[in-house]
Write a structure and sequence with these properties.
The complex is a heterodimer of chains A (643) and B (102). Chain A is mainly alpha-helical and 643 residues long. Chain A has helices spanning 2-22, 28-57, 98-121, 128-147, 151-169, 176-207, 212-217, 223-240, 249-252, 258-267, 272-279, 281-286, 288-309, 315-336, 339-366, 379-382, 384-398, 404-418, 422-449, 456-461, 473-488, 500-504, 519-545, 555-562, 567-613, 621-642, and strands at residues 75-85, 88-96. Chain A starts with a helix and ends with a helix. The longest helix of chain B is centred in the last third of the chain and has 29 residues, at 59-87. The chains are: A mainly alpha (643), B mainly alpha (102).
């Protein structure tokens, strides 16, 4: 099974290198197919690893409670020792266990579909080869993140996905807004990387090691240290997963091509924070306060993002805010200790959110790049396939049974109530309110874009693509597959009755006993979230389809929402404005008088000195000889006197 | 030891060196300057050999030979320059060859 893991990791990297070295010798088509094939090969490797773990897991029913004794379905595979400094050694190693195989399957599986979709979406773009090299590189980095066998490898993957996200957001580099968004994403992510690196330094100081076995299994951390480490890790997770207060980069990241939004900013990279919490849950459990702060962050983010999504007019931004909101759910689940529920939602979310982005991409593609939902009314008439696929994704997102979101979201909300404490119930209420908001913003999008007669804009701009009218098969096939997955993907687990997914993760990230809800609580919560979602849909229907309800006129609230609760403005005031003011002062007081003027002064002094000395250079041989002789004589005299 | 003492040799060497140096300083014809240089070198040589005899040590004589070799090559270069200057029909006057003036 370790060979599968290595194959999974290396295939996309090989594709990147091949495309980069091939350059213009490869046709655009060839580059696209190399990238796609490599990701599907990676998926094959992931399946191989999965089957390996599966075969191991079945005959062993023994439970192992502590991490360091390697439980049966775990394998650490080391290629070589990569860094060694005294007793501190870091190997180039992969860790294959139930958790990482699940992530490998999601990343390479959904990733493969999205790369296939890109073939159609990016067709005819000027720099297709560069795009496919980047996207294969992203898949490699993400796999490195999830397969990394120690925290340093994880951090390397963490940094590399940040880099490839930056490269892909700014892919259309002739657009200033895309370049700005890329920089913003990179800076925000770098902040998270830094806090995570600090946490790792603390761990090195304590354990002299970064391997999962030592660091996660150890218990020698004092409460304060454990809190700091967990906080550092949480900072990294929040930045990568766009949780408050580090969320502002994600909506702007929609400047990238739509498949990138689907792959990086919905299905895989942004959910890395949840994976990190599940992976290092033993550290977080030593710092339970911080873990609950993570849950609180998730609860807050899911409400705030859901509210902002209500007023967005750009189709991709609505889905981006919805992504933030859903990751809020995952954080909530992982934070209260129901890691497998969080991971399960991660998986179903990868299906339906990638689906939503890709159907949005089909719409954008058909309308020559238009993203404003106010102009799109009646698109369903001309694009029926897109319409039905979007509906499947939307119902999954809202959590209406039997679509996948129902199974994964409800169990998270139920787990929060299982805590039984006051904050548990607050989380529970947030979850229910979030379900209502989800129904509202998702079906606002639906009613504005798809039903009804096509608007004048749609009539004018819509043009048919490919044999089926809605796009080439490379785009339609992944959308269809994901629509099926978004529908049935959740049947894998229905927590009150059967839970193979949780069982699968029971060695890697067992659910805390405190977060195990009773069956009754599960049913009640399920009913409550579904009703909340339906109410949300009904309100959206009344407002946007039937126009029976007017949109409530609350100018102050509206303005706050349209300005995204002033987070960007606050960060401008807090960080950007002081920094640029400081820069202006430094320029005026230091750079101009000292550094710039200093250079000229130095040059002038040298020139002046040269002007003095040049008088000696007469060009007359005799004067030179005279000085020589005089010097020699002076030396002789000096020696004589000294003697 | 027969013959005059070392001091006489050294005095003669100093005279030769001084005459040479004076020649280099005040003559303007490059040929004469080269000639004066030879005088200076030979003054030095004489001192080397005198000391060699004084200390009954052969090293000074070896140095003398080395100086002669250097002098010969130096004269070669010098005379070559003089011929080159002459070919370009420039004045044979070291004071007018002042391109190094700063």
């Amino acid at each position: 099974m370790t060979y599968g893991a290595w194959l999974c990791l290396v295939a996309p990297l090989a594709a990147t290198i091949l495309i980069l070295l091939g350059g213009t010798k490869l046709t655009r088509r060839a580059a696209a197919w190399i990238a796609t094939t490599s990701v599907f090969v990676a998926f094959g490797g992931a399946v191989w690893a999965f089957l390996g773990v599966h075969a191991y897991q079945r005959p062993h029913t023994l439970t192992c409670t502590s991490f360091p004794d390697l439980c049966p379905p775990q394998r650490l595979t080391t290629a070589w020792t990569w860094l060694a400094s005294g007793h501190f050694k870091v190997g180039l190693e992969l860790f294959v266990d139930p958790l990482s195989t699940v992530m490998m399957l999601i990343v390479s599986g959904v990733g493969g579909l999205i790369v296939l979709y890109s073939i159609g979406y990016m067709d005819g773009d000027d720099e297709e080869r560069r795009y496919f090299a980047y996207i294969a590189f992203f898949v490699f980095s993400m796999l490195m993140l999830v397969e990394g066998g120690n925290l340093l490898m994880l951090l390397i993957g963490w940094g590399l996905v940040g880099l490839s996200s930056y490269l892909l957001i700014g892919f259309w580099h002739e657009r200033p807004s895309a370049v700005r968004a890329a920089k913003k994403a990179f800076v925000m992510n770098a902040f998270g990387d830094a806090t995570m690196a600090l946490a790792l330094f603390v761990l090195i100081a304590h354990y002299h090691s970064l391997s999962f076995g030592v660091v996660l299994g150890g218990s020698g951390l004092s409460q304060t240290t454990a809190n700091w480490v967990a906080l550092g890790l949480l900072g990294g997770a929040a930045a990568k997963s766009a949780q408050i207060p580090l969320q502002t980069w994600l909506p702007d990241a929609m400047e990238g091509p739509t498949p990138v939004s689907a792959l990086i900013h919905a299905a895989t990279m942004v959910t890395a924070g949840v994976y990190l919490i599940a992976r290092t849950h033993l550290i977080f459990e030593q710092a339970r306060t911080i873990e609950l702060i993570a849950a609180g962050t998730g609860a807050l983010t899911l409400l705030v993002a859901g509210l902002i999504a209500l007023v967005q007019t750009d189709i991709k931004r609505v889905i981006a805010y919805s992504t933030m909101s859903q990751i809020g759910y995952m954080f909530l689940g992982a934070g209260v200790g129901a890691y497998s529920n969080g991971m399960f939602h991660l998986m179903t979310h990868a299906f339906f959110k990638a689906l939503l982005f890709m159907t949005a991409g089909l719409a954008i593609h058909a309308l020559s790049g238009e993203q404003d939902i106010r102009k799109m009314r009646g698109l369903g008439k001309v694009m029926p396939f897109t319409k039905w696929c979007f509906l499947a994704g939307a119902l999954a997102l809202v959590g209406i049974p039997p679509f996948s979101g129902f199974f994964s979201k409800d169990s998270i909300v139920a787990a929060t109530a299982a805590l039984g404490t006051w904050y548990g119930w607050v989380f529970w209420l947030c979850g229910i309110a979030g379900a209502l908001l989800t129904g509202l913003y998702t079906f606002r999008l639906w009613f504005l874009v798809f039903p009804g007669e096509p608007s004048a804009f749609v009539e004018e701009h819509h043009h048919r693509h490919g044999r089926w009218g809605e796009g080439p098969w490379t785009m339609l096939l992944p959308v269809g597959v994901l629509a099926v997955l978004a529908t049935v993907g959740g049947w894998l687990q229905w927590s009150p009755l059967w839970h193979p997914f949780t069982n699968w993760l029971r060695y890697a990230a067992p659910t805390l006993a405190a977060a195990e809800p009773s069956s009754r609580l599960e049913y009640v919560t399920s009913a409550a979230t579904v009703i909340a979602g339906l109410v949300g849909i009904a309100i959206a229907w009344a407002i946007y389809s039937e126009k029976r309800l007017a949109i409530p006129q609350l100018p102050a609230v509206q303005r706050a929402l349209e300005n995204k609760f002033y987070f960007d403005a606050a960060y401008d005031r807090l960080f950007y404005a002081p920094a640029s003011a400081l820069a202006v002062v430094l320029r005026r007081e230091i750079e101009e008088p000292v550094i710039l003027q200093g250079g000229t002064d130095l040059g002038q002094t040298a020139l002046d000195a040269g002007g003095l000395v040049r008088r000696i250079q007469t060009g007359l041989l005799r004067t030179y000889v005279f000085f020589l002789a005089a010097g020699a004589a002076a030396l002789v005299l000096a020696f004589l006197i000294a003697k | 030891m027969s013959g005059p003492g070392t001091t006489w040799y050294l005095v003669l060497a100093a005279f030769l060196f001084g005459i040479g140096a004076l020649g280099v300083l005040i003559r303007r014809n490059p040929l004469i300057v080269l000639l004066s240089l030879e005088l200076m070198l030979n003054g030095g040589n004489l001192a080397l050999i005198a000391f060699s005899r004084h200390f009954a040590n052969g090293t000074g004589q070896i140095f003398g030979l080395a100086v002669m070799a250097v002098a010969a090559s130096e004269v070669c270069v010098g005379l070559g320059l003089v011929v080159a200057i002459n070919r370009k029909k420039l004045a044979l006057d070291v004071d007018r060859l002042s391109e190094l003036r700063g």
